[in-house]
Amino acid sequence: MAQPTLTRRRLLLQGLATGLLLIAKPSLSAGLGLRTWQSVDLDWFDSSRARQVPVRLYLPMDSAARKMPLVIFSHGMGGSRAGYRYLGQHWASNGFATLHVQHIGSDRSLWSDGSPLAVVNRLRRAAQEDEAVSRVLDLRFALDSLLGHVLGDVIDSEQIAIAGHSYGANTALLAVGARVDRDGRSLQFQDSRIKAAIMISAPPFYGERSAQQILASVHVPTLHITSTGDVIRIPGYFSAAEDRIGVFEAVRSSRKWLAVFKGGTHSMFTDRSGTGGPLLNTQVKEATRELTTAFLQSVYRGEVLQLGDWSERHAGILDRLTESRL
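Request: output the structure for the sequence above.
Response:
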């Protein structure tokens, strides 16, 4: 029975050697030494929904030698699988596989497909319930596809977390238990394989009033990251920075943490380098890389998350750090 697994691993090793994993670069991880990462773009198709699901998978360079934890990442409105490289590369350099999923219909095509005068209408359509549901189903399909792929041989299916920014944070919340009631029935998309979640700049659910009712069923450990300047302004939609705090307060995670940086903008958590100011942008990204990595390590290893050194190191840009246990 061992031969199929050995054959699949041999195929993976051959892929690594011949360039299946197309990008390989060094990444310096603060305090954890020099490791390397590699990535591959995969274009999957969910025939049951007639929907394309492009992904980018980041892996450590030594990925063929062992099984590793996985982080699934969901981008914000107008993003793509190529975004949030600063997180995917860092996590991979620290031993985590990262699967960045692109959501067709709320991805970068919003900015380029069709007339510029119709952007507002495209954004409004992308925020509707059918796309929100499609996004969380994208994540489930992508996870199923990865675990069934030869590359899935290196994934520890018992150690899976999810992360997302903005709209992607809402998608992540749906995947870990958020529920929306419609016409007397509950729309629920929890994937029990996902054991923890990272929400960056999570807005309230579009068109919904009660965050407590929607998020009370989220129980996995969660990390919430935002800033005092984390205001969402896109055509047809506005969300104040305080809304991110409301999401944190509404989830019923057994363990949850909230980090709020000073100032900044909503988009400084993307790969954009100038938003919020070049210096603060760089500092916040470095702090976010460190914090999310520490959170993932604590979840995967069952360790207590100790953030005293982190908060002291970033005290100049940190407005507050809150921990809550139920």
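The chain has a mean pLDDT of 87.
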